[in-house]
Design a protein that fits this description.
Length: 94
Amino acid sequence: MIWWVWMLLGLVLAVLEMLAPGFILLGFAIGAGLIGLGLLTGVLGALTAASGSYGIAVLLVLFTVLSGLAWLALRAIFQKPGQEPKTFDHDIND
């Protein structure tokens, strides 16, 4: 019955994403939602049961990996074509 905690975490992070600029928290929200969905459907239930007392650690590692992949996918999808990171060659105080 822990699936609802992950879904709630995903919902809270998605709402906080609306307050933050960019796609900072959306990758974490997607990762938490995927973990919650996996636990709800039973896909991850066997994984956590097989890992015994390390179940929460396995879920946290999986959450980290899924969140990172979601963040990279969002960055690839929503980044402007040919956009380079901003660099500054001078200091405004000079």
